[in-house]
């Protein structure tokens, strides 16, 4: 019989590599459901909480967090219970914070906790793999009624970085949204034929490569670092085709 850690590890491994873990008609989802139905409740409960999450193709370097920690976070979200966390900001810098957990979201193999931090009095998106320890408190923690976990995560990933981004795309917003993921920034219609992309990034070289997916003319208004990264990429491509 599986131990709790083994069962959670199995569920998380399947989540990292497969989309339809909650669909009983899917072969992998059906097999996982059969396994969980014969597990003791003490093992199946945490595993079911983790199984309810969703994921996409992993990013290079994505780290799978501790299964037991992830299960505690997911169960606290479901039970609306406040948490006291030990959180590693960076190696050697761990801080204690109290949060109201709202949702655990898996995006491209990275696991995030969406929450309200009472320590910072602000919304926060925390990396689950940086949670060193967790204590469930007997305090009610109700998420906002209008919470959209996926949208909140994408907003967080596209804002607050060092270099501001402004790009004008020669296409309507509906078409631009097919090429530009929400994590790159916010799309603002300018008129019927053009759209403004507003965001920020710490990695101009990486960001410019994402812009090459746009299948319409576009112009980089800012920042200077982003324009320089685009010029460097253009020179490389010209040399490659010479």
From TrEMBL:
Residues of the WYL domain: 69-136
PANTHER family: PROTEIN PAFB, PTHR34580
Organism name: Microbispora siamensis
InterPro entries the UniProt entry points to: CBASS_pafABC_assoc_protein, WYL_dom
UniProt-recorded name of the protein: WYL domain-containing protein
